[in-house]
DNA sequence: AAGGGTCCCAACCGCGTGAGG
DNA sequence: TCCTCACGCGGTTGGGACCCT
C-alpha cells in the first residue's frame, strides 16, 4: 500500500507518524478540538502539534474520540436494525450509521464484516441480496440423490405395510372395486411413515381403485417430497401371491422383512 | 508451553464528489 | 469550463488477542 500522497505528502517531505494513537496524541487532539474545533483537518495536525496527517486526525476523532460513541457490544436490537437497513441500503455504512448515531460507520462496517455477514451465510442467506442462496447444480443433484434414497426407504416400508394390509382384508376384490374400505387403520399407519426419515415428508395414501383397462387394483401414494409425484402399485400381483409389486415403470422385489418394522408387529 | 490459525478492530488507502477560484 | 483542494466514504490491511491442537 502506498502513502496517500494527496493529504500526507511523501516520505521525502519528512513523512508523518502512522499506526496506533498514543494517549498523549489523543490528549493533544482533544485539547485542540475543544479549544478551536475542527474546521480544517489539513491544518489541524500542525496547529495541534501532532505529527499526523489530517485524515488520520479526522478518523481518530470520528471513530474514537468524538463524544457520545457507544463502545459496548452490539445489542440484538441494533443487530436487527443493521440487518434491516442493510437489506434496503446495501453497504452504505455512513447512511446506516446515521440511524445509530452512537455508533460509527467503521464500527458498523466491522460488525457486519466480522459477524453479521458470516451469520447470514451460515443461515443460507446471501448477505448481498438477503435472499436464500440458490444451490448450484452439483448441490441440487446431491440433494436429489439424498431425497431419492429417503424416498426408497419409505417405499420399502410402504411395500411391507401394503402386504400386511392386504393380508388383513378377506374379500379384497369386492370391497376395493366399490371403494368401500372398512378397516382404515393400515392407511393411518402408512401416513405415519413420514416420520421415518424426515418429518417434512408427508405421504398421502389415496384409496385403492380399480383400473378399468386391465382390471388391476392400484393404490397411489403421493409422497409430498417433490411436488405431487405419485407411485402406483399393482396390488393384484401381490394378491395373487407373487413376490413383486409393480409400479408404473418397474417391478419391486418385496423384501422378506420390513427395514423398520419387525415382521411380528401387529399392523392391525 | 508453543506455535499456528482465526477473529476482531483500529487505522490506512484510494477514489468520488462538491466547493471555490 | 477546468483545475485544485479538502472532505467523506467504502474497501482493505496490520497486528494484537484469543483459541485450538
TrEMBL record:
The keyword Cytoplasm does not apply. The keyword Nucleus applies. Residues 250-262 have a biased composition (Low complexity). CDD domains: SANT (cd00167). It holds the Pfam family Myb_DNA-binding. Keywords: DNA-binding, Nucleus, Repeat. It is found in: Nucleus. It comes from the Eukaryota. PROSITE patterns: HTH_MYB (PS51294), MYB_LIKE (PS50090). This is Uncharacterized protein.
